[in-house]
Amino acid sequence: MRRIKLVDTREFEIEEVSTPRPGEKEALVRIKKVGICGSDLHIYRGENPVIKAPVVLGHEAVGIVEKTGPKVVSFREGQRVVIIPYVSCGRCEYCRSNHPNVCDNLLTIGGMTENGAFAEYMVLPEDFLINIPEGITLEEAVLIEPTTVAVRAIKRSRNVQGKNIAILGAGTIGLLILQVARIYGAKRILITDIVEEKLKLAKRLGADITLDVSRRDYFKILRKDDGLRKFDVVFDCVVNRESIKLSFSLVKKAHKVVVVGIPTKEVEVNFIPIICGELDLSGSYLYLREDFLEARKLIKDKSINTSSLISKQFPFTEVARAFQEIEENKGKLVKVILNMA
């Protein structure tokens, strides 16, 4: 089989390796499509402080079960599946307290502990898989995993029903949080970005207010329109010094900021607004299995507009061009998909 390996910063190679064989409780999955995530881009650019080349990227993957081990009970050959890119141990204190996403012994695909899905085949334990029901295309199914991130972020806010919320960053996750928040009853939604095309898309997807933070005077705009300052929850999908500062400017005192994005370097935080405003600062990392099932249902019900988020698709042999176009378009592309077969 063939797989794509990142062999150095911004350098891919397609290599031939043996097709793996499934163990007793594993399935051999023929990978069909993989979404390129922002975290893949950080590793590609050499910005991730932990994951470095050489590595096989990819975790937003869907495929078809080709073969199963004799003790696999939940899946059969020919079944379409989406990959859950992590498995917890089930034994540590976090797993036992229903926080498996922060498990001490977490196994993740895409470079952290295991190679990823930029490959024609993968062998995975059945716990890594969820079936794709009828009514969901493979393109839509690629968006199940990032939608799950959005579902988890909304849950970490405790409740958005009837509330005014702000979302910093109109990338894939920000635009999905926008849609999930609207489904869950958010009253008024602001979204920010530096790319005009993404802000226009956010408007079409239901944002009430958009704010171009590339403008030097955007803080003046906030001060002029007092209504822009009063948000019950802020979701930071960017996570840099400026976005943290903006989060504290937008959120009401005694309310919540949910940090969703993962920074590529240490971020300096001024704790005075947190202390004096009694702000609740929460992280949101990965998701629970129940969040995955909820995201799958939202996509099956067509509650999420996935087609507007898929910008381009490339054959996997053109992986270098796919990443180059993402970089050359400077944030204008939302979700790019590699077709593995």
Automatic annotation (TrEMBL):
Record field: transmembrane: 165-185
GO molecular function: oxidoreductase activity; zinc ion binding
SMART domains: PKS_ER
Pfam family, one: ADH_N
Matches recorded under Gene3D superfamilies: Medium-chain alcohol dehydrogenases, catalytic domain, NAD(P)-binding Rossmann-like Domain
UniProt feature coiled coil, ranges: none
Cofactor(s) demanded: Zn(2+)
Domain Enoyl reductase (ER): 5-338
Keywords (A to Z) from UniProt: Membrane, Metal-binding, Oxidoreductase, Transmembrane, Transmembrane helix, Zinc
Protein family according to the UniProt entry: Belongs to the zinc-containing alcohol dehydrogenase family.
Official protein name in the record: Enoyl reductase (ER) domain-containing protein
Source organism of this protein record: Aerophobetes bacterium
